Amino acid sequence: MKDIFIVEDDALIAMLLEDMLADLGYRVCASAPDLERALAAARDTEFDAAILDVSLAGQSSLPVAKLLDERGKPYVYATGYGAAPAGSSPTTLPVLQKPFQLSELEQTMKRLTGT
User: Fold this and answer.
1) 18-21: which pairs have CB atoms within 8 A and are 24 or more residues apart?
2) Fewer Cβ neighbours under 10 Å: the N or C end of the chain?
3) CATH for 2-113 (3.40.50.2300, 3.40.50.1970, 3.30.450.20, 1.10.3300.10)
4) Residue 92: its pLDDT value, please?
5) Distance between CA 63 and CA 97 in Å, rounded?
């Protein structure tokens, strides 16, 4: 089972995402609703991959992505805004567009985790 870290400021979306990941056989090992907690978890938690909301209450999740790049942790952005933030790593997977279906999440997670 792969451990996933979620960064999402909308509690309902975070819960839905956690349920969807569980249905696909993944375990959410950490979840953060804001930039400060996301940075702490990204630094101090062990996980296999992450899903990052682009905007956290108006703040960019780019600092979290840069920390994940430093740690060599794969991640994907999930957003309704259409694109990864400027300055994102060129190795970032295509953005998971909200709202997404279970099948889209499944395809993305397989590419992200190599399973």
Assistant:
1) 20/102, 20/105, 21/105, 21/109
2) N
3) 3.40.50.2300
4) 67
5) 20
